[in-house]
Design brief:
Chain lengths: 397, 397
């Protein structure tokens, strides 16, 4: 059994905070501060340019990619870090479309994170030639995978509701219809077991600053199935994806395999934080993590529903159909979340009416959930959200 | 007069190292370690998700962009940080091509950094429709700007030879021929005064980890002229370039102005290092910097040519025609650089035969140059590069 007391001790959480927002920005792993400081002072400061080789900077996007591969059921050597999730979406989409050249439709859903849809829109416009994005309600996607669809692009877990798609069934359906699939694992990686290879997924992308705790603006990752690895076109053909970056050839020749998805110079300080953050996973069994997370979510739902009938559950009750977050809807969701934060229970408001809380047993236990439930119920029963201070919207992240 | 003793004291350079490679990776500014540590421990650790507003993370790409704007002669409010230089090249190119829709040629030169050319190749392939990259020798560019050219895309300073293009004249020539211009300032920003607005430049891009000392993998920047700011298309249309990112609309509407060139979540730890690095510039007059850098280069060239006739100068002697680096050619350039590094004089080898050294008065003085000259001359006169240890090529960055 995974020892979640041990993992909790690996995080440096502020006193008095119940942090239910690790699905937006994971908290600071204790060793990350020292690891980043080492990267700044001992590596950059002392090795200077030599750090690229001596400190292994140049290899970090691949070596850390392998560690993430192990968490998402990917084959070793087929995940690489870099850029942001939006950029990785663009790369995956451009590659997938070129691998399926006779079709013109990208199929996605309204539960996808908007940036994925925006990047698809931008790519379609650049491609011209009839390419288009078709966006349906999540429940209508399965029935719409026909022979016009080049690529099915979905985020596995809906960032608002927490609804989880059936990756295996949808990947199979897409393949049967001759489409390729791209899965965005933003709310999956580090949240529960993922089986990319077993599901036969073509491309996957994800971020590291949510459940993988790499810190603000940590790099994204991309997975390309081994069967496409040497055929996928790197539309963003940067020098570090070149077969021989330091030959400085005038013409681009893609590197073999996943390295072609590298673009520019990797962000070493962010990668150092990620490296420390990945150490947390050493003795974690993802099945244990999943069971514990389901228990926390069940406890939270039961507690809130019991005492706060005005909050309407937006997340599926079915364990198989949800990620690792629970969302309730309420017209005053913004003010309610402000009141929660003022009392040290930190979750997210998501427009227009969602109170979103993430549950990860790495640093949360039943006591934390009980406290969160008590605070929310106090706010709802005593209408504490009516306080004008909670009604004024500042910038929202 | 700028006090370069004061700026030198702002850097933490290793004992015994003469660092002539700030043009590859600038050294560590003393305050950067504390600034990054604060970002990790006090901001990420204590503010958690709240850091996006409370610590001002979300504004850093723009506020630091304004500080860079002041160093490159750009209008305030028209520079933003993010991604890597290659990604920024792609954005600038895609925008510029769409602003000049009746033409199909991107004109560049063989002295451009290869990644810029690779990104252009990739974009042309994605666009299809006859778009193509035409790459000439640097001296042939001016004569080739005709009415087929949609965009002239050049790096101002050649990364190998240090040859500097005439930004003002080439920009004017391009505009007279109906072309737009993109300048890559990788080896310009922080190296000498740049006058983007005065030259009427359309787009500029650059990196921060060279002369701006932001550390390994620091973010890139992009400038869009005010006259294009609300018309340039953000081909990489990510959520942070949206008019209202946190409305989570399903359709992309570009933000007004430079914000549309933002893509994904900004790399906060790298931006923190950059913030500290930009403090070095507070009392620096770029004209003083330029004069001092020219003097260091003259001293270096005279010293090396005087004692090492086998080293052939690849950099223009004319002050107006070079950046802030000096390159010599020699068939044994790789081994010579290894011998230099072994003696604490750190520059760069650039394939196939270039010994490249960068000169910045921020942390280098005449004594450093004298030491470098003495070491190089010792190596050349005593053929120390023949040592087999220097002949074996490790990975080269």
């Amino acid at each position: 059994m995974t020892d979640f007391t041990a993992t909790k001790a690996m995080f440096d959480l502020p006193q008095g905070i119940t942090y239910l927002d690790g699905n937006s920005l994971g908290p600071l792993p204790r060793t990350a501060a020292a690891r980043v400081a080492r990267s700044v002072t001992d590596e950059w400061g002392q090795m200077l340019i030599g750090g690229w080789n001596r400190a292994g900077w140049m290899d970090l996007p691949r070596s850390l990619g392998d560690r993430i591969a192990a968490l998402i059921g990917a084959e070793a050597g087929h995940v690489v870090l870099g850029d942001t999730l939006s950029i990785k979406v663009y790369q995956a989409l451009a590659s997938a479309l070129e691998l399926n050249p006779d079709r013109r439709v990208i199929l996605s859903d309204t539960g996808n994170f908007p940036s994925d849809l925006y990047m698809a829109e931008g790519l379609c416009r650049t491609l011209g030639d009839g390419y288009r994005l078709k966006t349906l309600a999540p429940e209508d996607v399965a029935g719409a995978i026909d022979d016009s669809v080049a690529v099915l692009m979905l985020t596995e877990v809906d960032y608002r509701t927490g609804r989880r798609h059936d990756m295996r069934a949808l990947t199979r359906a897409a393949h049967e219809a001759g489409a390729l699939v791209i899965w965005d694992l933003a709310h999956s990686a580090g949240a529960f077991p993922v089986d990319l290879a077993g599901c036969g997924v073509d491309f996957a992308v994800g971020c590291t600053y949510k459940y993988l705790n790499s810190g603000p603006g940590g790099p994204a990752f991309i997975y390309v199935s081994p069967r496409h690895a040497d055929a996928a076109r790197p539309a963003l053909s940067g020098w570090l994806g070149h077969e021989a970056p330091f030959a400085f050839d005038l013409e681009y020749r893609p590197s073999a395999g996943i390295d072609r998805m590298r673009v520019g110079t990797p962000p070493i300080l962010q990668l150092a934080a990620l490296e420390a953050a990945l150490d947390v996973w050493r003795d974690v069994d993802l099945n244990d993590l999943r069971s514990a997370s389901q228990a926390l979510m069940d406890q939270y739902i039961a507690g809130v529903e019991d005492a706060c009938p005005d909050l309407i559950l937006a997340t599926p009750r079915d364990h198989g159909m949800r990620g690792s977050q629970v969302s309730f809807r309420h017209p005053q969701a913004y003010a309610i979340m402000q009141a929660m934060i003022a009392r040290g229970v930190v979750g997210d408001f998501r427009a227009p009416d969602v109170i979103r809380c993430g549950f990860t047993p790495l640093f949360l236990g039943a006591g934390d959930v009980a406290r969160a439930v008590a605070v929310i119920c106090d706010i709802m029963q005593n209408r504490l959200w009516e306080n004008p201070a909670y009604q004024t919207r500042a910038k929202v992240t």
